[in-house]
Amino acid sequence: MWIYLLLFAGLFMGWSLGTNDAANAFGTAVATRVISFRTAIIIIAVLVIIGALFLGYQNITEVAGLATNNEVMASEEDVEDAEEKGTMADLRLKSALKAAIIFACAGLTVFVMSFLKFPVSANQSITGAIIGWGLCYADYSNPAVLDVNLPQIGKFAATWLLNPLGAGIISFCLVFVFKKLFEKKLSSLAAYDKLVKIGYLIAGAFASFSIGMNSSANVTALYYDATGKGANLLTDARLTATIGGIAIAIGVLTFSKRVMMTVGGSIAEISQVDGFLVIIAMALTVVIMGNWMGIPVSTSQAVVGAVIGAGLVGGVKNVHFGVFKRIAIAWVSSPTVAGLLAYGVAFCTRGYFGA
Amino acid sequence: MLSKRPHKNVNTLIMEEIKDVKSCLIGFESFMRAAVTPQTVHETLVTLSDGVCDAEAAADGSLRRMIDSLSNTAFLPATRSELIDIATGCDRVANKCEHTAKMIVLQRFRFPEEFNDDVMKILSITHEQFEILEQSISSLFSDFSDLLKDHSILDEIRAHETQVDIIETTLYERIFTRDTPLAEKTQTAHFVELLCDLSDIIENLADKIQIMLITRKA
Questions:
Q1: With contact defined as beta carbons under 8 Å apart, do A117 and A321 qualify?
Q2: CB distance from A271 to chain B under 8 Å?
Q3: Which terminus of chain A is more exposed, N or C, with fewer CB under 10 A?
Q4: Complex ipTM above 0.95?
Q5: Cα A302 from Cα B82, distance rounded (Å)
Q6: With an 8 Å Cβ cutoff, is B77 touching chain A?
Q7: In Å, how far is B139's CA from the nearest CA of chain A?
């Protein structure tokens, strides 16, 4: 049973995602006191779990597939081989250990990058670490390996562009339509305030759902037994996603206030209406991209794209293009650093895991 | 979470406060008209000054009622704070009128006759300026989208302040080139400054309203 303790590495990652990602859903609303912190965390916690339960499992199988291709999780052949040799227990332990190492690499990346004050994406760090591990084990003399790895890396890199671009387009459309059709219907300050409150509630709830759907897979997918033959700790995809959702929800409920106030306060410069439209755009993008691309995408990237899209409605002059440099660093650095770290650990532990 | 209480109460109370401040400003204008009339006796000024003080007290009461009522509304905390800023800003106009009237009475100060027209001109511009402010505050509660789209009404308030500024500068030049003791010059300049402060306060309120609008524009 002690093997289940290795789950804590993933659950800890989920907890830390919860403490950070909650800010993307309700940070601005809480920091500007539109919604109380208590109301916000209850909505986030409930909807993250619902998102994980109803849609998160789809990403579980995708992430598990990615992890299997990158030698992080056991493949059918590995299972058959272990069954023949009678080493299933060993295989199971190794799978869980590798998952814990991937989370440690991603977690360390998030910690160090945050400490150095670089923007960072936890979701991208985990995917980067999986690919980094796989690159160490890839047999580059075999063209079939490249056939598997290159499209994966390409798909992953494509989200760097498509995710913020999609969020930017959706956000631009939402703000544009609001300005043209709804702004003139705001007869009084009271009507404006009411719209802002309702808007933030809907946007925050939707964003929480999308975080549950998108991020839960990252938290527990590496413990999912895709082979169905006991090669890993968790056998049901829906349960696996829900456990991830619960870990995120606990992070939200226990330790999200500080991050929420900091992040929310710093982006509160945009108008309240833009604020909730940006969150809706982010959530829509994460849901659409997550389903379409089949891999968890970065909510932080989506937020940045959405903020830029909202700014563009007022003209190019409203966009601070200087911010791109900093964001581009985060897009590339989070998965790259985590990937290099995982590559290094994989290289050093080849004797044990490669055997 | 979403209060169903009507906002009418706050809207009405804030407009009532503004009406009380306007009454105070009108009372002050009458007081000053009397003050620049050489035939006016001191007792008349005292009576008029008391009227200004009463109007200021009424405005204070309206302000307190408005602030009390805010806690029971569905306005966002930031909006509440902005509305309080606007209401207290209006109250400063009344406070300034009261203070100036009291000082004129206590110091038995009279403007030199040659400045009377300019002094009354400052007050007349300030009165107009306050009426535009009243209109723009009313629009916050009734024609918000129009105000959001076009807030040139606030530019009118600033234009009035510029007019007052020009008169103020000319007055200072004339005061300090008069052949009178420096103490008298300084005292006269101080009262001119007090009168012109009213317009500055109103302009600041226009700025606050503009900030409210800019931060709410999508």
A1: no
A2: yes
A3: N
A4: no
A5: 32
A6: yes
A7: 8
- Please state the φ and ψ torsions of residue A74, each to the nearest 5 degrees: -70, 135
Number of separate domains in chain B: 1
- Set of chain B residues whose Cβ sits within 8 Å of the Cβ of A309: none
Residue B176 sits in which domain range? 8-216
Residue B1 domain-assigned (yes or no):
no
Q: What is the pLDDT along chain A (355 residues), one digit of tens a residue?
A: 667 888 888 898 888 888 877 777 888 788 878 899 999 999 999 999 999 999 888 888 888 888 888 888 888 888 898 889 888 889 888 988 999 999 999 988 887 877 776 667 777 888 889 989 988 888 777 777 777 777 877 887 888 788 889 999 999 999 999 988 888 888 888 899 999 999 999 999 999 999 999 888 888 989 998 888 888 888 899 999 999 999 999 989 988 887 777 665 554 456 788 889 989 999 999 888 877 777 778 887 788 788 888 888 888 777 776 666 766 776 788 888 999 999 999 999 988 887 5
Give dist(CA B203, CA A35) in Å, integer.
Answer: 33
On whether residue B186 sits in a domain, the answer given is yes
Element (H, E) at A117: none
CA nearest neighbour of A214 among A75, A333, A97, A57: A57
Closest Cβ–Cβ partner in A188, A193, A277 for B142? A188
Which two structure tokens, joined as six digits, stand for B63?
Answer: 């302000």
Q: Considering only CB atoms, which chain A residues are within 8 Å of B74?
A: 190, 193-194, 197
Instruction: Identify the pLDDT of residue A111.
Output: 79
In a domain, B2, yes or no: no
What's CA A47's distance to the chain center, in Å? 15
The CATH number of residue B87's host domain is 1.20.58.220
To the nearest whole Å, the CA of A178 is away from the closest chain B CA by 8
SS3 B75: coil
Q: Is residue B75 part of a domain?
A: yes
Please judge whether B78 and A32 are an interchain contact, meaning their C-beta atoms are less than 8 angstroms apart. yes
- CA of A14, closest CA in chain B: separation in Å? 29
Q: Which helix (H) or strand (E) holds A52?
A: none
